[in-house]
Every structure is written in structure tokens, then in C-alpha cells.
Write a structure and sequence with these properties.
alpha+beta; 2 domains; 8-stranded antiparallel sheet; 8-stranded mixed sheet; 6 helices; 28 strands; globular; disordered N terminus
Length: 405
């Protein structure tokens, strides 16, 4: 009897533990159920939902994009189509529709330098690398690491990973030289490529950063390979950057320029990212990754990506991007904050929200006063800045191809 009683107690204890786990799961799920919800189809394949949670309180906007609709795509857009500068998301939307496409909706994207508008992370637009580096240029991150980024492959496949530039320069005479960055300067010993995307001139050399520069002319493009011709001798001063031009630049003590060859020689610049997720059509950065394989990973964000409690634990307005387990549905999400009607979310709360709406892989984008969502030309969230919508560095646009007449 004593043995049976012991087994009976053990069974009861296990049942109690199981019930507690189920109760916690139900409670957590229930906590993410909105008190009110509206939903409308913007166009076939795009649904906009507005959710209100009284317990936050939170005002949430969710845009669901069915990537299986061939006429829909998601693209990255820079402010004013320039490497630097800032522009409102609503203004980016207003000027980005064309004769063949129209912008259905958009959200703000990457973190940026408030003074210049330059984005912190790697940037790829329409398959062209605008910025690439080994370490994210984020002054708030004391770890000096690479942050997570969102991308779309040329096959319309959404991906989230910590992409790192993998670039080499191949002179005509053979061999290869590692490339440290594109349109970025990581340190005084770097070997980098500046393209005309950075502006009309190579960055100023007032601090002696670039001891050597070599002007280049683009003569061809083959997939991930750019073919350049040297159009001048190495010099210790910047050069102009007309369309298609580029500059190879390096710091003190680098003997790499001699290996490039003489004026008139051709070189190949092979650019890619690791991990290799296939050719990337669009890339924007974020910080940090929140959901991996259907599970919140926020608890490890401070250690892995250099976030800190004032950013991750404090409630702020948030913007995020994610996609479903089968990669067919893209989610763009904003949470208003710093207002009486909506307090903003911690990263833990934001990750829970993502999970509750169907996100299987999710990334936090720039938030705070930058948080903005535009649907059919109208701002649908309430930005926290006193002056309203903030100018930002870039945006993610949901674009629909117009039917042919």
C-alpha cells in the first residue's frame, strides 16, 4: 500500500506540474489576445489589422503580406535615394510609385545616424550593395559585433541572419586581396571599396584616414562580380565619383595597391555575404533578433547582440519584421509608445506579440520616435515625437505591380 501510495503521489505531482505548465502557457497566450481588433484587406494578399490591448495599454498595427501573390514584392528604399539624408516614410512612399508599380504600405527600417541619416547595418537595394562591413557601425553597441539583418533573396524568400561581408579583389595578374568594407571605413588599416553610391567625392581625408586611393571605372558586372579598370595611379588624396566610378582605398602601410597593377589594368571585385543564403535582392538591418524557429530569444539578446536593459527592458515604441514558418507570409508590425493610449513594449513583450500573430522568425527594427507605418498613403500609427512623423534613413515598402492596360 505504501508503494502504491507513493506512486499515486508522484502521479499527482506530475499532473500538477503539467497543469501548471499548461496554465502558464494559456495565461501567456491569453495575455496577447487583443481587447479590440479591426481587419481589412488592402489589396488581394495584403491585410492590415489594428489591435488594441487595454492591459498595456498598447496600440498595434500589423500588416500581413502574402508573398505567394506574384504581383506583390517587398523592397528597401533609402531616404531621397541617397546614401545619406533623412526622409519621412510617408514621403518615401509618395515618391516611390511608378508607372508600373505602386506602393501599398511601408514601415521604417534600420537604425541610422541622427546627424547624417546613414544606416548602421549592411544595405542591399535591388541587388546592389550600398553598404557592407564586418562589424555593425552602432555606437550604442559596446560589443562591436554584427547585428541581425532582414533580407529577401532573388527568389522572394525572406531571411533573417547576421550577414557579414565576404569580399575579395582579384587583380588581372592573379592572387586575391581581402576586402574589408564597401562604402564604410572600419579602421585605419582597412582596404575598402567606395562606389558612387556614397556621393560625388570619396570621403574627406582631413584626419589622414585614407593614405592611398586608386580611381576605378566600372566596365562590367557578372552576377556577384564587378569588373573595374584602373584609371589612375595611387594617390594620397580623394577622387571624384561619377556614375559607375569607384575608389579602392587603404590605410597606412598597405602594400596591396602595387598588386592591383598599373593604370589601365582590370581587376575583379567579388562581393557576397556569409552565411550564404543565396543571392540577396534586399537587405536592411535591425537590432536584435527576437524570434528564432518559433521561440523568443530575447533573453540572450544583451549577451549576443550587445543590447542593454535601457533599450530592451524599458517600454518603447517598436517596429519589427518577421515571417511565417513556411516563409509565405511577411509581417510588418508597429507598436505605439510613450503615450497615454499606448505605453510601448519591452523586447520580451514585443517578441510575445510577434509569436501571437504568427511570426516564426522575427527581428526588431528601429523604434522610438522613428516608428511609422503607412498604408495606402496614410499614416496609420501615432508617432511619439511631439512634431509627429520623424524623418528616417530608410524604409521597407510593400509594392504591387500594376496590371498592364
Amino acid at each position: 500500500m505504501a508503494l502504491r501510495a507513493g506512486r499515486y503521489r508522484l502521479i499527482l505531482q506530475r499532473l500538477a506540474c503539467f497543469s501548471a505548465v499548461v496554465l502558464l502557457s494559456v495565461t501567456a497566450l491569453g495575455a496577447q489576445q487583443p481587447d479590440s481588433s479591426t481587419s481589412r484587406e488592402v489589396v488581394p494578399g495584403v491585410t492590415h489589422r489594428h489591435l488594441v490591448f487595454n492591459r498595456g495599454p498598447w496600440s498595434v498595427n500589423v500588416l500581413e503580406v502574402d508573398l505567394r501573390h506574384a504581383e506583390l514584392t517587398v523592397v528597401a528604399a533609402r531616404a531621397d535615394d541617397r546614401f545619406t539624408g533623412r526622409e519621412k516614410v510617408s514621403d518615401i512612399v509618395a515618391r516611390s510609385s511608378t508607372d508600373t508599380t505602386r506602393v501599398i504600405a511601408a514601415v521604417n527600417a534600420d537604425f541610422f545616424n541622427l546627424a547624417t541619416g546613414e544606416n548602421e547595418n549592411n544595405q542591399v537595394l535591388a541587388g546592389e550593395i550600398w553598404k557592407a562591413q564586418h562589424i555593425t557601425a552602432a555606437p550604442a553597441d559596446s560589443h562591436r559585433t554584427v547585428h541581425s539583418q532582414f533580407g529577401l533573396t532573388t527568389r522572394q524568400q525572406p531571411v533573417i541572419d547576421r550577414f557579414v561581408l565576404q569580399g575579395v579583389v582579384v587583380p588581372a595578374r592573379g592572387g586575391s586581396l581581402p576586402l574589408d568594407a564597401v562604402n564604410a571605413w572600419p579602421d585605419s588599416n582597412a582596404f575598402v571599396l567606395y562606389t558612387s553610391r556614397i556621393g560625388l567625392m570619396s570621403p574627406a581625408d582631413s584626419a589622414g584616414r585614407h593614405q592611398t586611393v586608386v580611381p576605378l571605372a566600372l566596365v562590367g558586372r557578372r552576377g556577384d562580380t564587378l569588373v573595374y579598370r584602373l584609371i589612375g595611379k595611387p594617390r594620397t588624396y580623394g577622387a571624384s565619383l561619377s556614375a559607375g566610378a569607384a575608389i579602392a582605398a587603404g590605410g597606412t602601410g598597405l602594400a596591396r595597391f602595387a598588386a592591383l597593377g598599373d593604370s589601365g589594368a582590370t581587376i575583379r571585385v567579388v562581393l557576397g555575404f556569409v552565411p550564404d543564403r543565396g543571392p540577396l535582392r534586399e537587405v536592411v538591418g535591425g537590432w536584435p533578433r527576437l524570434v528564432v524557429h518559433g521561440r523568443s530569444v530575447v533573453d540572450s539578446a544583451d549577451a549576443s547582440e550587445g543590447t542593454f536593459p535601457r533599450f530592451s527592458v524599458t517600454r518603447h515604441p517598436r517596429t519589427g519584421v518577421g515571417f511565417s514558418r513556411d516563409s509565405t507570409t511577411l509581417y510588418l508590425i508597429t507598436v505605439d509608445g510613450r503615450q497615454e493610449s499606448s505605453s510601448g513594449m519591452s523586447l520580451v513583450e514585443f517578441a510575445d506579440l510577434m509569436l501571437s500573430v504568427g511570426v516564426y522568425e522575427g527581428l526588431n527594427l528601429d523604434g522610438g520616435g522613428s516608428t511609422a507605418m503607412v498604408v495606402e498613403g496614410h499614416l496609420v500609427n501615432r508617432p511619439s515625437d511631439p512634431d509627429g512623423e520623424r524623418t528616417v534613413g530608410n524604409a521597407l515598402l510593400v509594392v504591387q505591380r500594376k496590371p498592364r492596360p
